[in-house]
Design a protein that fits this description.
The chain has 149 residues and is mostly beta strands. The protein has a single domain, classed as Distorted Sandwich (Glucose Permease (Domain IIA)), CATH 2.70.70. Helices cover 7% and strands 40% of the residues. The strands form 3 sheets. An 8-stranded antiparallel beta sheet has the order 9-5-6-7-11-3-2-13, with no helix packed on it. A hairpin with a 5-residue loop joins strand 6 and strand 7. The mean pLDDT is 95. One of its GO terms (cellular component) is cytoplasm.
Length: 149
């Protein structure tokens, strides 16, 4: 079983509250979402493993059990073309749980007209593969978001 931790501080809101039908309908996969605190911060690795996909607005870490976890920093933020995001690792890097991955400012994302809400999704998983999914309440970068069986 893998523990998936929060990659940033904020308030857990659940996928259903994400203002994007692909995420809110769990079409990418099951998981939860975080409405982040609005100051500049750093998104950290929600699991230890290898960075297999890395974009300024999103990254995927695959853990030792082969579980891929997507962290998507905001909604429609791909349209910002990397503006306001700083990559702190490279694709292929091995990271430990909690290692810094991307520096960003959710308030700037919001000023650019995008939602700063961050889905954290278990890729290639079924909803029943996850347990203890946190969908409400304040969350810190070391708080458990869900367990993956």
């Amino acid at each position: 079983m893998s523990l998936v931790m929060s990659p940033l501080a904020g308030r857990a809101i659940g996928l259903a509250a994400v203002p994007d039908p692909v995420f809110s309908g769990a079409m990418v996969g099951p998981g939860t979402a975080i409405d982040p605190v609005r100051e500049e911060g750093v998104a950290v690795a929600p699991v230890g493993g290898v960075i297999v996909s890395l974009h300024p607005h999103a990254f995927v870490v695959v853990d030792g059990e082969g579980h891929g976890v997507l962290t998507h920093l905001g909604i429609d933020t791909v349209q910002l073309a990397g503006e306001g995001f700083e990559l702190l690792v490279s694709k292929g890097d091995t990271v430990e749980l909690g290692d810094p991955v991307v520096r960003w400012n959710p308030a700037e994302v919001e000023r650019a007209g995008k939602s700063p809400v961050c889905p954290v999704v278990a890729l290639e998983a079924t909803a029943d593969a996850l347990s203890e999914v946190v969908e409400e309440g304040e969350i810190a970068p070391d708080g458990v978001l869900f367990r993956w069986q």
